[in-house]
Amino acid sequence: MNNQSQRVGLLQRLLNSIERTGNRLPHPVTLFALLAALVAIVSAVLSLFGLEVVPPGGGEAVAVNNLLSAEGIRYIFGSLVDNFIGFAPLGVVLATMIGIGMAERTGLISVLLRGFILSIPKSLITFGLVFAGIMSSVASDAGYVVLPPLGAMIFAALGRHPIAGLAAAFAGVSAGFSANLLLSATDVMLGELTIQAAATIDPAYAGSLNLAMNYYFIIVSTFFLAIIGTLISQFVVEPRLGRYEGDYQGEESTTITALEKRGMKWASIAFVVTLALLALLIVPPGAPLRGEGGAIVQSPFMSALAVVLLILFFVPGLVYGIVTGAVKNDTDVANELSKTMAGMSMFIMLAFTAGQFVAWFAESNLGTFMAVYGAELLQSISLTGIPLLILFVLIVGFINLFIGSASAKWAILAPVFVPIMMQLGYSPELTQMAYRVADSSTNIITPLMTYFALIIAYAQQYDRDIRIGSLIAVMLPYSMAFMMFWTLLLIVWLLLGLPLGPGSAIHYGG
């Protein structure tokens, strides 16, 4: 490892170049403001040519709306606040984070992750680390803070290389971010953007979409990626790292206290009771959250998934906090939730500029033009089907090296690629899942990922010579394997024509 980190080879130079290029990009908040300004300028230029196209969904021809005309300027000033408030993911993400934040701030999620890892047999510890990492995405950032150092400690205690334990956990948390057995804020956030983008082409079809549109696929992906990550760890990463000869002696406890166990017990009871009460609103015939004719897929339940997630996380988190003493009164509840919302301040600022870009892009009709001409271009070079899907995954994976935020990238890409893929006969559900595959897979090899520096700090406790290139060299096999095999799984799904989620489709027939 030490010699490896000292050599500056081709890969190291490439990664250094990526880091320098990415650092030159504006902050995502600034980037969206610049993109919104670019949309206004392009709309003004194209409107001079009087171009018109017929939307993919049919109907009357549309022209580019000039956002710098008198009418366009009135729209910009008059809709600024509405564009911010109406940014699709804003309300649902903040609402969902109230519940997740309560479970995270009281320590419930942290102790559940520790409990899972400590309860499985030693022979399954690698699989358990990757699996727990994938599952931790329901709690957003908690997995990054808890699992990599825990994985390193457990591997060290077992006489295995601690960096291998850290890497396995990091791969699950970050590269497997879009897989899970549960729906999370990611489904809510990306789903809202996908529905919004699909509505520019076919509002009726967009109205039939739900936030669980990828649920079946991400369930299967959870076990699939856990197996892939385990194989990469045991047959590629650990042999390459060799025997650990460091002298680090950690003082962290890997046990669970009696109080924490008591808290988990009562939190589990609270979860079951809450789930049962919610089931009464969904399962019985005529239940208020069922749709017409007793439908579940197209129902108030699916439309209110953010609220359901809020409740399912909030109640057990609150009960755990009360039992362990983390929450003593309503003031503590308010304070903890305030800290959660404070952590979302960057997302709120991002929503302001992203909301303008998304709204201006739709108002200008540039999305319709890009959908029509982009589809025609791809058809003219006979790029459709599986090659098109693979190209899209590679493009997104490359962009992810420079722009880490999944929501920021999808806010940019969804208005362009969702309509193009719909024009070529592929559903928004498929496009979103392809995006999620690519976005997750390369998280662990970009120094621009938010928690990359934290992972290096954890790793340096065991090997002081580890630098950016060293960590990326460890994580690169995971990234390549996840992207290749996960894309292959999606291709098999496409060929079999399986639904990606409740009521979802692979092909768009609008």
UniProtKB/TrEMBL annotation:
<feature type="transmembrane region" description="Helical">
    <location>
        <begin position="142"/>
        <end position="159"/>
    </location>
</feature>
<keyword id="KW-1133">Transmembrane helix</keyword>
<feature type="transmembrane region" description="Helical">
    <location>
        <begin position="410"/>
        <end position="428"/>
    </location>
</feature>
<dbReference type="GO" id="GO:1902604">
    <property type="term" value="P:p-aminobenzoyl-glutamate transmembrane transport"/>
</dbReference>
<feature type="transmembrane region" description="Helical">
    <location>
        <begin position="382"/>
        <end position="403"/>
    </location>
</feature>
<protein>
    <submittedName>
        <fullName>Aminobenzoyl-glutamate transport protein</fullName>
    </submittedName>
</protein>
<keyword id="KW-0812">Transmembrane</keyword>
<feature type="transmembrane region" description="Helical">
    <location>
        <begin position="344"/>
        <end position="362"/>
    </location>
</feature>
<feature type="transmembrane region" description="Helical">
    <location>
        <begin position="215"/>
        <end position="237"/>
    </location>
</feature>
<feature type="transmembrane region" description="Helical">
    <location>
        <begin position="166"/>
        <end position="183"/>
    </location>
</feature>
<feature type="transmembrane region" description="Helical">
    <location>
        <begin position="29"/>
        <end position="51"/>
    </location>
</feature>
<feature type="transmembrane region" description="Helical">
    <location>
        <begin position="471"/>
        <end position="496"/>
    </location>
</feature>
<feature type="transmembrane region" description="Helical">
    <location>
        <begin position="115"/>
        <end position="136"/>
    </location>
</feature>
<feature type="transmembrane region" description="Helical">
    <location>
        <begin position="303"/>
        <end position="323"/>
    </location>
</feature>
<feature type="transmembrane region" description="Helical">
    <location>
        <begin position="84"/>
        <end position="103"/>
    </location>
</feature>
<feature type="transmembrane region" description="Helical">
    <location>
        <begin position="266"/>
        <end position="283"/>
    </location>
</feature>
<dbReference type="Pfam" id="PF03806">
    <property type="entry name" value="ABG_transport"/>
</dbReference>
<dbReference type="InterPro" id="IPR004697">
    <property type="entry name" value="AbgT"/>
</dbReference>
<feature type="transmembrane region" description="Helical">
    <location>
        <begin position="440"/>
        <end position="459"/>
    </location>
</feature>
<keyword id="KW-0472">Membrane</keyword>
<dbReference type="GO" id="GO:0015558">
    <property type="term" value="F:secondary active p-aminobenzoyl-glutamate transmembrane transporter activity"/>
</dbReference>
